Amino acid sequence: MTDTTFATDATDSRRLIVLDMAGTTVADGGLVERAFESAAVRLGVEPGTPEHAEKLRYVLDTMGESKISVFRHLFGTEELAQRANSAFEEAYGELVDGGLVVPLPGARAAIEQLRSDGRTVVLTTGFARITQDAILDALGWQDLADLTLCPADAGGRGRPFPDMVLTAFLRTGAVADVRDVVVAGDTAYDMLSGRRAGAGIVAGVLTGAHDRAALTAHGATHVLGSVAELPAALAVRAAPAIPAESS
């Protein structure tokens, strides 16, 4: 059953939190669409054409997936995919500097609270490292999380593969069992990645690309209004049972 209440357990073992960025902790003001349009034009796909509309729809439907994987599907050859990906990353990086990327409400405070509670926080993305770093720099988040990962850090495979979650598990050593990992994201691909990695909690958030039905259908164990609710939800789960008073 998917809900917003985490089961109570006296043993707080959920010490590794793997969070998506765009749509989960960060709002980018539609920059993905704008950057794709710039990349598509460079490859001869003009805005307003049926081909452009079809390709943009696929980009939006696959939010959360590694961008190079998306471009491989859209353009067919590795050469074209790499050209499109480079153009996309360049355009997105330029747009980031325009100040349109902002933290989602409560996201920074949530990450700080999770770390204050003794949890290890890892930020993940489907973007390339250069774009992830541009976002972190724009927000002043370079040291906010314990670790940041992009697909290249996990052998090149992004979501919906479990590789970034498992890389976080291996690199941090924060927990001994993948079932003690918490994954949170706003897309179906985030949910699939978390479930395939064996994470015990896979929480969907309603601040990004996909709605409750899509998140649940792809494996969310819980659905939250936003990532700002995550620290309190985990604190409820970890609260020890109150012993009954003796008569």
From TrEMBL:
InterPro entries in UniProt: HAD-like_hydrolase_sf, HAD-like_sf, HAD_sf, PhnX-like
Coiled coil: none
Gene3D superfamilies, per database record: HAD superfamily/HAD-like (3.40.50.1000)
Pfam families according to UniProt: Hydrolase
UniProt cross-references to SUPFAM superfamilies, sorted A to Z: HAD-like
Domain of life: Bacteria
Protein name (record): Phosphonatase-like hydrolase
UniProt organism field: Streptomyces caledonius
